[in-house]
Amino acid sequence: SDFWDHWTAHQPESTLAPDYQIWSDFLRRYLDTSNSDGIHRVDYAGVTAEDREGLKQYLLRLQKIPVSRLSRIQQLPYWINLYNALTVRVVIHFYPVDSIQDINLPRGPWGGGGPWGKDMIRIDGEMISLNDIKHRILRPIWRDPRLHYAFNCASIGGPNLAVTPYTAATVNAMLNRAARDYVNSPRGVRHTSNGLIL
What is the 3-state secondary structure (H, E, C) of 11-65? Predict the structure, then answer.
């Protein structure tokens, strides 16, 4: 991680709470959790023009929230939900695409294939990328290994996208469940006659 201390500012007594209803509605409509393999899949092809616009407006609303005025417990779900919604929006924008790694955007300092290093959204006056959210904000500030299981990486092998938005009231339980579900799935750990395969 490359700590970005700009994002440590918060207001412990703040009652400001972001509204994730649009994201909740989107997940309810387009996240398919009925697959026999247990993998959650977004129905990218089925997303209507209206819901594409709704997702765009949701991100614009998050963009306007003064993150430094949120309490720390509100900031955590804010960043997770922002990361996941941005990832979904990128795939929708470039759909159809075989893999998110095929989405080659101008790279930021993190390099690598895919869209993760591209500055995508301005929050509190700063342009940030998906990698900024993951590696420079969430991981170094919270230092919680469970965060790995909260990130939607838009891949079959990654942790499932949560069926509901993270909130201050649910974030701890949801992180526990995401970690437990992934580690206990064949994608996380498989037991074979030859031993353990990760």
Answer: CCCCCCCCCCHHHHHHHHHHEECCCCCCCCEECHHHCCHHHHHHHHHHHHHHHHC
pTM value is 0.90
Q: HEC states along 148-197?
A: HHCCCCCCCCCCCCCCCCCCCCCHHHHHHHHHHHHHCCCCCCEEECCEEE
Is the distance from CB of 85 to CB of 151 less than 8 angstroms? no
Q: Is the pLDDT of residue 110 over 50?
A: no
In angstroms, the CA 178 to CA 172 distance is 10
- Dist. CA 143–CA 198, nearest whole Å: 23
pLDDT band at 109 (very low <50, low <70, confident <90, very high): very low
Mean pLDDT of 135-149: 95
What's the rounded Cα separation, in Å, for the pair 94 and 92? 6
* Cα three-residue angle 38-116-185, rounded to 5 degrees: 20
Strand partners, 119: 129
Tokens linked to 110: 């993190």
Question: 45-49, 63-67, 100-104, 182-186: which has the minimum mean pLDDT?
Answer: 100-104
